[in-house]
C-alpha cells in the first residue's frame, strides 16, 4: 500500500501539517468539507513554500516536489487508502466523533487515526472507534510548518506500537516529539490558559490596554509574542473552544 497521509481540515493547522508531510516526502490527501477552504489552504501552502525558497531554507526543486505531493478533495471516501490520517478539523467533540467513526469504518486495519486536538480527550475520541489502540494525539503548534514541537498524546488504550510509529513520523517531519498524558490541554495548552486568561482579566479590569500588555510581556518577559497577538494568530474562536474544553 502506498504511504499516504490523509489530513482532515484545510484551515490554519491542516494546511501547515499537509505542507510538513509533503516536504518529508509523503503523498498527502488534504480533505475539507468546503472547496473554498481547500483552495485557500493550498494557496497558503504555495505562498509558504515560495517564502521558504526566498529565504533559502528550501530549494526550488524541494518546493515544487512538495507541492506535487499534495492533492485536495471534498470526497471523504478517498481517504480510505491512508496509512495515517491526521485530523485537524474544528475543535468540537461531536464533529471529531463523526469523522472518527467514518474513518474507522473505511480505513485499513493497521492505519492510525491521529488528531491535532488542542484539548479534547484522546481516550474519549478513541472510544468511538473499534481501533482504540490506533488512535493518538499528534498536537502541532501554530504555524505548523515552523514550530518544532509536537505533543504526542497517549490515550488510555493507545498502544506502544502506535506511539512509536507516530513518534518516528514526527521525527521524519523534522519535528521534536514530546510525550504527554491524556489530560485536558495536555502540557502546553494547560500552561498557556492563565497566559491568555489573566491577560484578558487585566484588560477587563482596565489595568492596562492590549498594546501595552503585549509590549510588556515581550519586552520584559522575553516572550516572542504577547497574549493578544498570540490569540489573534491562533484564532479567537479556536482559543475560546480550547479554554471551554479545558475548563469543562
Ligand atoms: N489554531 C491554532 O493555533 C491551533 C494550534 C494547535 C491545534 N489546533 C487545533 O487544530 C484543529 C483545527 O484548528 P484550526 O485553527 O486549523 O481551525 P480552522 O478553523 O482554521 O480550520 C478548520 C477547518 O476544518 C474544516 N472543517 C470543519 N468541519 C469539518 C468536517 N466535518 N470535515 C472536514 N473539515 C471540516 C473547516 O472548513 C476549516 O477549513 C482544532 O482541533 C484546533 O484545536 C489549533
- Structurally, the number of domains stands at 2
Briefly note the structural class of the backbone. Answer: alpha/beta
- Find the CATH superfamily of the largest domain: NAD(P)-binding Rossmann-like Domain
Give the class-level CATH name of the largest domain.
Alpha Beta
Low-pLDDT residue intervals, each spanning 5 or more residues: none
Radius of gyration: 18 Å
- What name does CATH use for the topology of the largest domain? Rossmann fold
Helices and strands, in order, run as EHEHHEEHEHEEHEHHHH
Description:
The chain is α/β, with parallel strands linked by helices and 248 residues long. The protein folds into 2 domains: 4-181, Rossmann fold; 188-247, N-(1-d-carboxylethyl)-l-norvaline Dehydrogenase, domain 2 (Orthogonal Bundle). Helices cover 49% and strands 16% of the residues. The chain has helices at 12-23, 35-54, 60-69, 93-106, 122-126, 160-172, 188-204, 210-219, 227-234, 236-247; strands at residues 4-8, 27-31, 70-73, 84-87, 112-115, 135-140, 149-154, 176-181. The chain has an 8-stranded mixed beta sheet, sandwiched between helices. Helix 6 links the parallel strand 7 (149-154) and strand 8 (176-181). The protein is globular and about 55 Å long. It starts with a strand and ends with a helix. The mean pLDDT is 97. It binds nicotinamide-adenine-dinucleotide. Nicotinamide-adenine-dinucleotide is lined by residues 8-14, 32-34, 37, 88-91, 95, 99, 116-118, 140-142, 234-235, 238, 242. Nicotinamide-adenine-dinucleotide binds at residues 8-14, 32-34, 37, 88-91, 95, 99, 116-118, 140-142, 234-235, 238, 242.
Amino acid at each position: 500500500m502506498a504511504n499516504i497521509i490523509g489530513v482532515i481540515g484545510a484551515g490554519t493547522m491542516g494546511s501547515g501539517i499537509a505542507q510538513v508531510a509533503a516536504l518529508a516526502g509523503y503523498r498527502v490527501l488534504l480533505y475539507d468539507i468546503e472547496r473554498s477552504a481547500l483552495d485557500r489552504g493550498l494557496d497558503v501552502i504555495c505562498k509558504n513554500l515560495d517564502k521558504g525558497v526566498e529565504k533559502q531554507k528550501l530549494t526550488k526543486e524541494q518546493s515544487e516536489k512538495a507541492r506535487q505531493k499534495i492533492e485536495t478533495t471534498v470526497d471523504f471516501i478517498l481517504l480510505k487508502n491512508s496509512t495515517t490520517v491526521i485530523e485537524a478539523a474544528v475543535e468540537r467533540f461531536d464533529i471529531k466523533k463523526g469523522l472518527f467513526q467514518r474513518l474507522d469504518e473505511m480505513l485499513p486495519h493497521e492505519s492510525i487515526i491521529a488528531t491535532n486536538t488542542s484539548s479534547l480527550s484522546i481516550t474519549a475520541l478513541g472510544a468511538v472507534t473499534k481501533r482504540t489502540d490506533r488512535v493518538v494525539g499528534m498536537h502541532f503548534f501554530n504555524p505548523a510548518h515552523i514550530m518544532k514541537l509536537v505533543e504526542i498524546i497517549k490515550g488510555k488504550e493507545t498502544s506502544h506500537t502506535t506511539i512509536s510509529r507516530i513518534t518516528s513520523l514526527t521525527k521524519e517531519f523534522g519535528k521534536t516529539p514530546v510525550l504527554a498524558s491524556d489530560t485536558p490541554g495536555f502540557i502546553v495548552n494547560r500552561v498557556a490558559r492563565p497566559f491568555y486568561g489573566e491577560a484578558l482579566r487585566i484588560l477587563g479590569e482596565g489595568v492596562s490596554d492590549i498594546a501595552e500588555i503585549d509590549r510588556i510581556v515581550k519586552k520584559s518577559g522575553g516572550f516572542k509574542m504577547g497574549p493578544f497577538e498570540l490569540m489573534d494568530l491562533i484564532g479567537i474562536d479556536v482559543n475560546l473552544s480550547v479554554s471551554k474544553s479545558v475548563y469543562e
